[in-house]
């Protein structure tokens, strides 16, 4: 193809924006990229997001966001996990630079960060637009079509919005989230949804509200994250926005009969939130008592999609491909949803770059993307499922055994540690998607 590639991305979440940046940087000549976003504007509501070293590797090395990360991110020294009833420390895992041990750097090559979702989204958006991507808001994509002949520019893919606007492209990337509409054009049906039984509350407080309170400051929020684990629930708190805002994510059982939309904007009732924590440690209850505004998300599960690419053969199939939660909806128990979307973005960008250089049919490269990403994202999902069971155990022999193992593995006991298993952690955090996808593309060449 002599002209630049024309790419339409549906969804300006973390996955869609990361894809825009990665593709602009990797594919030559620089493609024309249009991002269609349903929202009227990219909202300022969100929550903290844990950026594990595998995601930092993508943001710093592949998307060029090292300076922005240093500006907005918080580098935690440790994670402390506490018992629900009395805040006894169950385990402590050093992350960055505690006791002179910059573990994440040493073990995985990159740091662990805490970011506010809005900061992450806005740094990606700024970079994407600097690189020439165009963002169209109030653009709700409802239809996708592949035509064999294509238009006068040879573009065979098109997306139509609810207001009738149509955008043509060589490739359409559906990064439209867990409730993806475009995935139906890949699968031929809507993805089934089941409740997980859990809801996520989120809240932020000014830093001073927590750190100027000696009871709360003594838990160690200044330098790391603190997690309370208890029956059916857990709470995590850490600083974001360069340390100026305190963020909490609170996972509890759904209230009977309460079914809400999955959105960052739905407000929850702080009193109802607090009811879940009667009998929990007084310091946690003191922390929760400070919450005036909270947001609620009923978590729903969706299966891993069998296929991420529109049906058809290499010659006549459509170039519609899924990315991020649209392909592999992730629950927040392992903090890997955004990370997996960012890894997808790099993989897809390298595939498109390779296809352009080698004059491959795009579908050949898109098939490799799917082949490399499915098993990886499946294992990330599994990590989340295991964390849920591990975090939410009822008190009893299983929990006592868990606590014993956690205590043995704790860095505060100066034992060789890993938040469970060094090999698993290396596989999760040490993963280099760029190296993996380059290897797969070279093998296929
Ligand atoms: C409470 C909670 C905490 C989490 N914490 C973490 C964490 O700490 N670390 C981590 O890595 N992950 C975390 N995750 C998961 C992470 O947020 C998601 O996996 C990630 O945001 C997925 O990004 P995405 O771009 O695929 O989808 P989304 O972020 O959902 O973005 C999809 C975008 O597409 C737009 N859109 C939807 N439909 C259309 C349409 N038809 N047309 C046009 N635009 C459309 C939406 O408006 C949205 O902007 C958490 C999730 C939750 C719920």
From TrEMBL:
Pfam families: FAD_binding_3. Keywords: FAD, Flavoprotein, Monooxygenase, Oxidoreductase. The keyword Flavoprotein applies. The keyword Phosphoprotein does not apply. Residues 409-420 have a biased composition (Polar residues). Residues 6-182, 318-378 form the FAD-binding domain. Belongs to the paxM FAD-dependent monooxygenase family. This is FAD-binding domain-containing protein.
